[in-house]
Each structure stands twice: as C-alpha cells, then as structure tokens.
Write a structure and sequence with these properties.
The structure holds 2 protein chains of 2 kinds. Chain A is of the alpha/beta class. Chain A has 19 helices and 23 strands. The longest helix of chain A has 22 residues. In chain B, about 25% of the residues lie in helices and about 30% in strands. The chains are: A alpha/beta, B alpha/beta. Chain B: This is Restriction endonuclease PLD domain-containing protein.
Chain lengths: ~625, ~375
C-alpha cells in the first residue's frame, strides 16, 4: 500500500470520509501539475492556501504522503515558534504517518541512523537556534547533497519572511530557512497559510514569491468568512454592539443558552471568546464585568423579565447539529450552570497560564488578546465578543484573530457581537480574500489585492518598499512617455466609439484589449493595471467599466495634466467603476507627428490596489 | 530477458517494468539458496541482507565482494561484513562473505534457487546497496536484466562458483584487507570545533615533546558485564541525571595524574586530534581526575564515539533510556575490534592564541587504531 493510500485509510477508519476525499482532490490537483514535473535541479516555492481553521494540516500530510510515493525522502514541517503547537504537530505526525521516520527537534541521531532509508519527517519550530542546529545537521550528514528536500512551512507568512528586506539584510529565521534549502541539491518549499497577503506581495527576486498557488476549498460544515461576513445578504449570526444597550449582557445570555443547549444535547463543550485590547488591565476589567453579569444572571434567575430574555434568545437560536431541547430543559440547565458556578472564566495573556484542557469541555468564557491569534483553536466556539480595532489594522493579522471559523460550530447557535466599523473591516477583508481565491482558481499568475484606505494588507516590514507600490482608486493615472504597439490596431479597435458620445459602458475585457496595445516606461505600469482589471474579472466575469474616447487632442507631451476639465469631471462622477479615457493626439507638441493613443485610468474609489513590480 | 530499473523521478518505471528492489525481495522471499557476487556493498545493504536471509529462512547464502582488496575497504563496511559473516558462521545458515583477491571484480550477479532448482538470475548495474536504498544512492539510476530461464541462471551461477574458488576469493575473516578510515562527521560544523588539514596535523606532530600520557578508556568487558556500565565514556547509561549519548566523562587514574607535566587543574589547552580536529580541553573535577572538552562535554564524546560509529562498531543513540539492548554501549570487545583502548595525550612545543588573546599550549590527542600502517584516511 502506498504512503498516500495508507494515510487516507487511517482517516477513513476514523470515520472522516469527507476529509479523505478532500485530501485526495488536493493531491490529484497538485501532484501531477507540480510534483511529478519537478525538475530535481531547482529550488521551487509553492503556496497551499486554505481558509483559517479549515483543515490545512490534513492536506499537508496528504501531500507529504503523496510526495513520499514519488521518492521525496525528507520533509521538514515548520511550525510557529510555540512549544505547544510544535508538540501538537509532531503528535499528529506520529499518529497519522506511522510508516515514516519521525524526528523531533532533538532527534538528530534518529535522522542520522535512518540515513533516509525510510522517508523522514522533521518537525521544527521556526526558532533561530532550532533552525541553525538542523542546518548544521543537514550539512554534517551530507544526506541532502544529491537529494530533494521538501519543506512545508505552516503559517508561512508569519516569521519566515525577511523582516529586514528594506534594510538590505536578512532576518535570522529567513536566513536559516534559506540556508536549510541550500543544503539540498533541490527543494520544494511549500508555504501554507490562510492569509497569503504578505507572501503574494513578495517579489520573485526575493525567492519567497510562490511559483504556483493552490487553493483548497473547505469541506462541508465549515463556517468561514462568507458565513460571518456575507457579501450579498444579512449576516445571520451578527449582533452589532453599537446599537445594543448592554451587549456584554446579551453575549453572556447567548453563551448561557448555547452552552445549555449543547451540553444537554450530548455536546462536550461550548466556548465564548472575548477579544478586547491587548492590554492586560483591560482583560481584568472584562473579567470583572463578566463576573458581574454572571452574578446578575444568578441573582435574577427566577425573575420573569430575565426568563423572558432567555426565552427570546432560545426562540432565536435554531441548532442544526444538536437536537433542539425544550425551553424548560434549557432553562433548568442554565440555572444549574449558574448556581453551581460551572461557567468558567479564563483570562489568556502573558501573565496567565491557561492550558487547552481548561477549555476542552464544559462552558467557558475566555478573555484574551494576542494569545488568541494564529494557530490556537477553540473547540465548540459559539459566541464571540469583539471590541478591538487596531489603529493601523492589518488584514492578515485581523483575519488570523477570526477564531470563530471552523467545522465544529453549529451555525444556528453562533453569535458574533461586533461594532459596525469593525464588521465593515472584516467584510472588506473577506471580499479581498474571495477575490484572491477567485484569481487563484482561475489560474491568474499575477494575483492582485486591494483594500480600503487605512487597512494594510500585512505588516510593512516584510514588503520591499522599492518594489511594492500602491495604486489608489479615485486617482487618475497616465503615462509620461506612452507609445503604441500598433496605432492601426488601436484605430481599428476604437473605430466604433464616437467622439461625440460622452462615454460608453464597456466590458473590462475590452479595456484590457486596449491597454495591451499600449506601452510605457515604469512610471505607468500597464501590466499592473491589466492585472488589476483581470482580478476584477476573476471576481465577476461580466464586470463593466466606463470608456471615454477622444480624438484630435493637442496636448503637449509630458504635461502635468492630461485630461480636459470636462473629461476630468465626467470621470470623477463615476466612483464605483474603472474609468478609462483614451486620447488620440494630433501628433504635434512633442509627439513627432505620430497620432498616438494615450490612456488615462482611474480605478474605483476609496480602495488601494497593491502592485509588486517584478520587471527587473 | 526483462529489465529491472530504478524507480526515480523523472524516470519512473512503467508497466510492465519492475523495480530491482521489488524483484529482488520477491525472489529472495521464495528461494532457499542465494548467490551474490558484486563489486561493492554498503553497511545498510549488508544488514538488510542479514535480515532477508533470516526472515525468509534462506538456508544457503554466499556474498562475494569484488572491488575492495586492491582499493581498500571502508572500515564501517568491513566491520559490518565481518559481523554478518560471523553471524552466519555461528548459526545453522550455510553462509559466508568472501573477498575477491585475484583481481578487481566489478560484475553484479545474483542467482536464486529453490529446492535445488534455479528460479531467477539478475545481471545488472546494481551493487548490493540497491537492496537498501539510503541517502547516498536514493537518486542513483540503475538498470539490470533478469532471466528466469534455467540455463541462463546456471550460466550466471557458473561464474559466481568460479569466483568462489580459493584461487579467486577467500572468506573475509581470512584476508588482511587495507581499511579506509571513514571521516567522523559528528564534529562537522559543531560549535567550538575547527577542522584541521592533514598537513597541519603533521606540522604539530613534528613538534612533539617528551611529555606524553597514555590514558586507558575504562569500559565493561562485554554487554553482560555490569561493571563500569554507567561510567566514563558510557556515562549516559548511569542512573541519575539524564545525559545525552554523546556526553562522556574521561576519568584519569591517579598514577597518570601524578606524572610530571600532566595538565594543570582547569588550565585550558588546545588539542589537535590525529584525525584532524581542533578544540579546547582542560582537566577538572575532584582531584583533577577528569579530562573534559572545555566548552561542551559532547565534543569529546563526538570525537571518541563518532570514531567508533564511523568504524561501524556502535550505533549512535537518540534516546539512551530506550536503548535497552545497549546498542550504544562501548565494551572491551568494541575497542578490541576497533584496535585501540586508550587515548594518547602528547604536548607539543607550540602554543596558540585564542579569541580572547590568551596564549595556550597545544597538545596532540590520538585515538586512531594502532595498526596505522595499512589504513588510510578516507577524505
């Protein structure tokens, strides 16, 4: 039995047939396209992109097993620099991939003795000392000299990228990861993440931009961005805290109801997460407030007004995974939870030591800051209370704090308490994520992303400022030194558009047609605009834009403004579409008699588009 | 005739081809008599052959190795081959490992018999290493031809039989073979350790003084001997504080410590080893009885135990508490096979300046087997 068959069998025997099918699909898509065609001479970088908490580890293991069947002998799985997460991963590797030689960070002798006779998996934290040690081990054994190394970097956008790119140096972890790669004759470096913003904004020259990107869809029952922040409908589970009189009380009541409903229906755990600011004093303040609310609930448990509030919450909730119990049953259990003090309040931050066992069963309210981020999983999470917005929010970090995503949630019991402004930010991030996914699924090579002004895609220190530029929506862009591939082709393409019409509504595909007949110096990267328009088409293949066509324009070359006042105003009146204005020059005033077509483009307003310039 | 190929990307096997390793295992599992004559072998493949013969209860086996008599044999491979030969000799298997002496034999022949009848024969580019792929040959592409025609198999056996005649080859324990010392890679890239060229080692050796100490390594006589099981170079097997396998504690007897010129208590000095490493050492402990590598106790261990592991006499152990069979325990028997039971510490007339500007003495430290005349360093 092959390694892959054996792994899938293990999953199926655990009763998870759907996961096995999903992994098989990923393997079928990735292996023939990228692994079977691997040159065994190069160092290649790929990206496995999947939603937050949507089962990436299983997909990673599937690819490891499939690659072993192809003869890849060594796999390094990188985890974030957290002992618990590293140990959690190695435990899963040991349980799921038993035929492999599995090395923990200190198992150099195991690695040595095995001498690649069995395919080997090494699970390492992204920690400078650990990576240096293994770089040395790979060098001293010499095993990798003629062999291929397969690195799987879980949460590859965190810690791995070069944070000193703008200082012309390499950050330590980035340096050692490069060094580890260089120990092998060839390598595949598979980045894995649910937030690929920072990775996709790397330049090709950096060596960290993926040559291929694969997105795997989450399986059935997964609640993710589209459930919580839907684009075209009202969110089912969201309660806006701005309009609620006492949102925390409402959240506590919601949690009591969900906990009681789940626990008496045979569920093991129901969690409630409060995500306030990073400051520990605020955590304590929330802890006290939660205690106060619980106290209030306990004292008023028999009060008809309180019972009515519970009843309303009960009526709203429509559990789908659990049998809906009678209100009397649920109420009696809430009473029991409160009177017996069975609702645990846990504070997770630098000064407290909360272990995962403490929120694996029962009814828990967890309060914390950054510790609630990347990699930490809260089982049975049904109520979330957000208060924080960073001053300079970053899309990837915010998304990683979306701990409500996952499989073991009951959508009929989910409640997200959130401010409208923060909700809008999450919705915008979700929209961009969906756009990235569409672009990946349509096989676009140059993936573009855009965010509203004030929301950064990722932390700035990993982006090469000289190469990553921002193109603002609502701003007119035009080339300083334009040229046309063939004026005749453009004449023909634009023949049907009359000067007398103010504007035409056209398909964005036509705009691409027009733009690719034009060239420019690097001040106006036609390629970047084409990619951005392509990304819009990936989201919506029938997208339309506004086209203005003007002829016999006698504008001087290199002038500070190209558009006439009328055309400027006309373009400015359109905020939500791409506006492309093309002027055909008379050929005078610096154009050497050539009747060139010159573009001016304005993207939809209040949005910033990110562009990586990989031209040289 | 059919072809047996390696199965590696981008040249994976295609139907109806078969991988050599798969065919070999199938044929071995259904035979009771196996004859092999190859140019080269590896440690891992020798162990694998031992396992296969035992698992499939093969009654008769002969492995004839062709290329090492004139070229010299890597010491780890040699010790493993001798162990395999001895294991067969001491069991009811009619088995032996032979070395071709008359010439360099570079052929690769394999024949399989069942109840006296030939069932398969392979002529190929694969040396024995192909039955257990490891780091060094995982991506080495080989092609062989296989026959199941009895007359052709007998023809191959005819050559193997002639190679087994005393005028061509002898059992491995009967031959004096030049051993190639393998580099102890355990010190490569270790912090506080520097590689030294052989010319530099010679230069230091030319500056030896008369101050020299022969320090015996105290070990149990064999695996059954409970004495000294947890001390000195086997200190990781001691009860109490857990130590990694590489850590050693060289205890030096009073009769040596009292000799004139013995290094002073906790005064670091540089040692240059006979196999080309350089690191700092000092003497310390109660009554100055221990000789330690200064910056990390594992350095001395990696030097001594790494030598024994490179020679194929012990296995490095990842988790000492799991080594219930004492595969990593060093005994008198181990050192006997290695050819050396002591370290020699000799002062040179030279000094060296270390990073902090201090000038310290340079000593030579030796642990290569005494039979230097017929061994060469494999670099």
């Amino acid at each position: 039995m092959s390694y892959l068959e054996s792994y899938l069998q293990t999953i199926i025997e655990r009763g998870n047939v759907q996961l096995a099918e999903s992994i098989q699909k990923t393997v079928n898509d990735v292996v023939p396209a990228y692994l079977e065609n691997f040159s065994f001479c190069d160092h290649e970088v790929g990206l496995l992109f999947g939603n937050v908490q949507s089962g990436k580890t299983g997909q990673m293991f599937g690819l490891v097993a499939a690659a072993s069947d192809l003869g890849f002998p060594v796999f390094i799985i990188l985890t974030t620099d957290n002992v618990l997460l590293q140990q959690q991963t190695i435990h899963r590797v040991r349980t799921d991939l038993q035929q492999f030689c599995i090395c923990d960070e200190y198992d150099s002798e195991t690695f040595n003795r095995n001498s690649l006779m069995k395919p080997t998996i090494i699970v390492l934290k992204k920690n400078v000392n650990t990576l240096r040690q293994w770089s040395n081990i790979l060098a001293s054994t010499g095993f990798m000299k003629g062999n291929a190394l397969f690195i799987i970097d879980d949460e590859a956008d965190a810690a791995s990228l070069n944070t000193l790119v703008n200082k012309s140096r390499k950050s330590s972890i980035n340096k050692y990861l490069d060094e580890i790669k260089s120990r092998a004759a060839c390598s595949i470096y598979l980045q894995v993440t649910g937030t690929p913003q920072a990775i996709l904004l790397q330049t090709m020259a950096s060596g960290w931009h993926p040559y291929f990107t694969y997105y795997f869809r989450p399986g059935r029952g997964y609640l993710g961005g589209d459930f919580f922040f839907p684009q075209y409908e009202e969110p089912r589970s969201v309660v806006f805290t701005d309009t609620s009189e006492n949102p925390l009380k409402a959240a506590v009541i919601s949690h009591l109801m969900a906990s009681s409903q789940i626990l008496i229906s045979g569920g093991k755990v129901c969690n409630f997460l409060i995500h306030p600011s990073v400051r520990q004093a605020v955590h304590t303040q929330f802890q006290n407030e939660v205690y106060r609310e619980l106290q209030f609930c306990t004292e008023n448990i028999d009060d008809p007004a309180f019972i009515l509030a519970l009843r309303q919450e009960f009526d709203r909730a429509q559990p789908e995974k659990y049998e809906r119990k009678s209100f009397e049953n649920v109420y009696a259990n809430i009473k029991r939870l409160l009177i017996n003090h069975q609702v645990n309040v846990l504070v997770m931050n630098g000064s407290s030591t909360v272990t995962s066992e403490q929120y694996e069963s029962g009814s828990n309210i967890i309060i914390g800051g950054n510790t609630l981020g990347r990699g930490v999983t809260f089982p049975g999470l049904h109520t979330i209370f957000y208060t924080r917005t960073a001053k300079k929010p970053q899309a990837d970090t915010m998304w990683q704090h979306s701990r409500m995503f996952g499989y073991d949630r009951d959508q009929g019991l989910m409640r997200v308490f959130i401010g409208q402004e923060l909700y809008k930010l999450f919705s915008d991030i979700n929209a961009t994520n969906n756009s990235i996914i569409s672009q990946v699924e349509r096989g676009l090579k140059h993936i573009k992303m855009f965010y509203p002004e004030g929301l950064n895609p990722t932390r700035k220190n990993v982006l090469d400022h000289k190469k990553v530029s921002m193109i603002s929506g609502g701003t007119n862009y035009y080339p300083f030194t334009p040229d046309n591939n063939t004026i005749e082709d453009l004449n023909q393409l634009l023949q049907r558009f009359d000067d007398t019409e103010d504007y035409y509504q056209v398909s964005l595909r036509l705009m691409i047609e027009i733009l690719i007949h034009m060239t420019s110096e690097s001040d106006f990267r036609i390629h970047a605009f084409v990619s951005i328009i392509n990304s819009m088409l990936a989201d919506n293949p029938t997208s339309q834009g506004i086209l203005l066509v003007r002829r016999n324009r006698n504008v001087a070359k290199g002038t500070g403004a190209m558009l006439s006042s009328n055309d400027w105003q006309l373009g400015a009146s359109v905020q939500d579409k791409v506006v492309l204005t093309v002027y055909q020059m008379t050929g005078e005033k610096g154009w050497n008699g050539r009747k060139l077509w010159v573009p001016n483009i304005k993207l939809p307003s209040d949005v910033v588009y990110y562009d990586v310039n990989d031209d040289d | 005739m059919r072809l047996l190929c390696s199965d590696i990307l981008p040249l994976r096997i295609e139907d109806p081809q078969k991988a050599f390793i798969d065919y070999f295992n199938e044929a071995a599992s259904s035979c009771d008599h196996l004859e092999i004559a190859v140019g080269y072998v590896s440690k891992a493949s020798l162990k694998e052959l031992g396992r296969i013969v035992e698992e499939y209860r093969i009654k008769k086996v002969c492995l004839t190795i062709g290329m090492y008599f004139l070229e010299g044999m890597p010491e780890g491979t040699y010790h493993t081959a001798v162990s395999l030969h001895e294991a067969w000799q001491n069991s009811d298997i009619d088995g032996e490992v032979r070395i071709v002496r008359a010439f360099s034999y570079h052929g690769k022949l394999y024949t399989f018999y069942k109840e006296g009848q030939p069932i398969a024969g392979i002529i190929g580019s694969q040396n024995l290493g192909a039955i257990k792929l490891e780091a060094s040959n995982l991506r080495q592409y080989e092609v062989a031809a296989v026959t199941e025609v009895p007359e052709e198999i007998e023809e191959l056996t005819g050559i193997i039989s002639k190679l087994k005649r005393p005028n061509c080859s002898v059992p491995i324990q009967d031959v004096h073979i030049k051993l190639l010392r393998e580099v102890n890679r355990e010190l490569v890239d270790q912090e506080f350790v520097t590689r030294v060229s052989s010319d530099e080692v010679t230069a230091y050796q030319n500056q030896k003084t008369d101050i020299s100490f022969e320090i015996p390594l105290k070990v149990p006589s064999n695996h059954d001997d409970p004495q000294m099981r947890g001390s000195n170079i086997n200190v990781c097997y001691a009860r109490g504080r857990k130590r990694v396998w590489w850590e050693v504690e060289i205890v030096v007897g009073k009769e040596i410590r009292d000799l004139p010129g013995y290094p002073e208590y906790q005064v670091p000095f540089m040692v240059v080893t006979d196999d080309g490493w350089k690191f700092q050492v000092w003497t310390c402990g109660q009554n100055n009885k221990n000789l330690y590598s200064k910056d990390d106790l594992k350095i001395m261990g990696r030097w001594i135990k790494g030598r024994l592991a490179a020679a194929g006499l012990i296995e490095s152990i990842n988790q000492v508490e799991a080594d219930t069979l004492f595969e990593g325990l060093i005994t008198e028997e181990t050192l006997e096979k290695y050819g050396r039971k002591s370290l020699t510490l000799t002062k040179t007339a030279l000094t060296t300046t270390i990073d902090n500007g201090t000038e310290i003495d340079v000593w030579l430290l030796s642990f290569l087997p005494h039979t230097n005349d017929d061994r060469e360093l494999l670099l």
